[in-house]
Amino acid sequence: MRKDEIVIDVITSQQSITLNLLREQKLIKQYMFKSKYNLSQISNRLCIVAMLRWAICENLNANFSITNFSLMNAEATYLKSEIGLLIDVMREKMGNTVKDYIPMLDYSKKESISLENRRFIDNTIALGFSNGKDSVCCQLLLKKSGYKIENFQFDFDDADFSHDFHTKYNVNDEMLAKKYSTQAIFLNNNVSYYQEEDMHIIYLAPILLSAHKGYYTKMACGVQWDMLSQNGKGITIAESFASMKNLIDLTKLMGFQNFGIILPISAISSFGVYRILSDEYGFSKLEDFNSCWISAETPCGSCTKCIRVKFTQDILKTCISGNFYTMLNIIEQNQIPVDFLFGSQNICKLLNNLNRENIRDISKDLYIKDIKPEYDAGFSKIIEKEYGFKEAKP
Ligand SMILES: [Zn+2]
Asked: pLDDT at position 233, please?
């Protein structure tokens, strides 16, 4: 199989990065990043490389040549490792034919650049804040552990660019974009794949702002246990430990020695997050944390997100009242497959394995101690102490 050649043309300014994907000089797709603040030379590079990852991993069915940007060894290694994770996931689901999809990368090489000495602040943490339940819960836990928090927002489709960072892509040729898209490869093989916003730029935020602030911090993200995986096999590859490790390795080589990503709620599931929020704010307030996918004001009640929130709340309500038989009925009567509802095989497996003997309090039982201590950064201990969670029995 001979694959089409896609040129990725990199266009940068101090506050924006655009990747144009071209086939025979025709624009197929365009990826864009905007920041309100100037990026330093190094954070500009990191952002470009994270965007290259995004563009390549989303359009795997082609070979790529990168123009207007030369890659250093560490950057090329990062891109190849990330492609490798994706190929591993595909191999597991589609078998060995997947080797046809491994893209060739053509790029010019760059000698290493001189790195500045970066100032790191460790009592402060950057938090990607969306107002959703996960970031609210992270904020709460970070405050309890004494961190100063710097909230910032990413927007994916906000045309007005009203927040710190803005990323989006434009499709110029629907048919060709589909031909190259990784999503289409999965669909054609009848394998489910969850790829929404699968990128690393969001994790880089404290570094991208470092030129403006004069220092950088670690990054906290509200990713819960049900979205994470130990290797690259998560539904969103960017939210796997393996993929985060690739990014951290790259940033360290680029001179951000202390950079790390911590995941305060990685030891608990979506159910556990709601449990904490209902402890703090009362059960009736849980509705406020539903960031409906359709409506910005009143939740629509019918999108998958709204259905998921309702499902979680129903289960939580029965957990709190101790009515476990009702909980089983809720799970049995749920119309939408649970893995689809949560975008998570972990939750699906867990709910499917419930039986009348081992159900006690699902929000407490869904607690997995120290899923990976270097990412959890001790937050499972705080959760255990403050909210009475117990380690899940294997
Ligand atoms: Zn909705």
From this structure: 61
